Every structure is written in structure tokens, then in C-alpha cells.
Amino acid sequence: MTLVCHYVASYLPSVSPSSNDPAEARGRARQRRRTRTALLAAAAQLVAAGLAPTVAEVADAADVSRRTAYRYFPSQERLLVEAALEGLRPVVERAMATAFPASANGADPAAAAEARLDAMVRIVHRLALEQEPLLRTVQRLTAGRGAAGQPVRGSRRLDWITEAIAPVRPALGAARHQRLVAGLSLVVGFDALFALRDMHGMPAADVERVTRWSARALLREALAEATDRRTRTIGGRG
78, 101, 154, 192: least buried by Cβ within 10 Å? Predict the structure, then answer.
């Protein structure tokens, strides 16, 4: 399974555009993605060698300027935590690749997307429990750090949500699809897990039930809106 990140450009350091050319903007986004990937790959290699590299050392290993590296990762701790999280991506994607075929049988895109989304929520929930100390560190490092238009975390969660609801993307349209991905990002993942545990004292099993219910409700609402819009459009033409 290959995940296509539709929102990764939003999760990388912004660069002031020099023109309104969409092709140029896409080129800049791809370059930022390559730079970030190169830095994380270099960090992972150095960590695997038993080192705790600084941002400067990772920049040198990745053949990226130190100034650029610090724009992506302002601190060593932030870089090492992000590299560790990126290393978990294949674990989730393998689990999704295994779960999706069994949960997406049938010709109904809505039913397939709901089953895929439910499977993804359960997989991410389990990972969040297994990696709670690491994810608590991420939460601490990124709290209050995001400037407008420049989020401070990677795109893993958005990638996984996008892949899960892929069967209904044509039915939703671009704008509604993007809004659904944003909404689902509020209820899927470690932020929701920690909020429900910390504020409500919920056990992990109850948290999973709430997040699965919330994700399902958002998906159904988005599909209902899309269906209602198509119905009103057809009725108006009639």
C-alpha cells in the first residue's frame, strides 16, 4: 500500500511564494518534503549507529544547510523525537495494509470507507497506547508552537486518515474531503486519547469506543451533506 500525502505541504516550513504559479508551488512543496525526508533519514541512520546527533550533525550528514535544518527542527530533542515517530510509520502502514482488504469488501464506497476508517482508528489507538511516553514528549514539545499557516508536526496522521477514507473521496469533492480529514484529525490519534484519559479519566477501552464512534459520526455526516447537496442540485435542474 502506498500512501499519498495530500496535506504534507501544510506540515512543512513555509516559504514565501514568488509567484502564483500552481506548478511552482507544487515544486516547492516537493522540495520541502524531500528536505525533511532527508533530514529524518540521516537522523535515523545516526541513531541506529548508536549516536545522539545534534541538528547540526544531522544537517551535515544529509547535505542540508544547518540554517535550513533548524527551520525544520529547532532543537535536538524535537528532531530525535520526530525521527523516532517516523520510524513507526511502517508499523502502522503494514497493519493497515493487512486490515483494509478484510474490512473493505463490497461495492459500497461508504461502507468500505467506514470499515477502513474504523480499522485505522483501532490501529492508531493501539500504537498510541504502546508509545505513550514518546507521544507525551511530542505533545510537550509542540504545545503552543504552531504559528498560523505553519503547523509543527509531521503528516502521518493525515496520511493515514486520507488513505482510510479514499473510497469516498470522489463523492465528497475536494473541499468537503479536506474538511473531513481535518475533523477526523481531532478525534483520531494520541491527542484524543490523552484528552479523554486526562480530563475524563476514561480507561483505554472506553476511549477507543468514543473515538471510533466520533470518527464514524463525522464520516456519515460528511457523506449525508454530500448526498443532500447532490439531491438539491438535481432537484433544482428538474
Answer: 101
Q: Tell me the CA distances in angstroms from 168 to 111, 115, 217, one per residue in order.
A: 9, 12, 15
Q: How far apart are CA 232 and CA 236, in angstroms?
A: 6
Q: What is the pLDDT of residues 162-208, one digit of tens each?
A: 999 999 999 999 999 999 999 999 999 888 888 898 899 999 999 99
Distances (CA, A) of 37 to 40, 79, 140: 5, 12, 23
Q: Which residues pair with 150 in a beta bridge?
A: 147
Grid coordinates belonging to 9:
505541504
Residue 61's H or E segment, with its range, is: helix 55-62
| Residue 135 dihedral angles phi and psi, to the nearest 5° | -70, -30
DSSP designation for 178: H
Question: Quick one: which of 30, 60, 29 has its CA closest to 45?
Answer: 60
Q: Hey, how many other C-beta atoms are within 10 angstroms of the C-beta on 4?
A: 9
Instruction: Give the list of residues 6+ apart from residue 65 with CB closer than 8 angstroms, or none.
Output: 59
Look at residue 150 and give its three-state secondary structure: strand
Alpha-helical segments (H) within 104-203: 109-130, 132-142, 156-164, 169-172, 174-187, 190-200
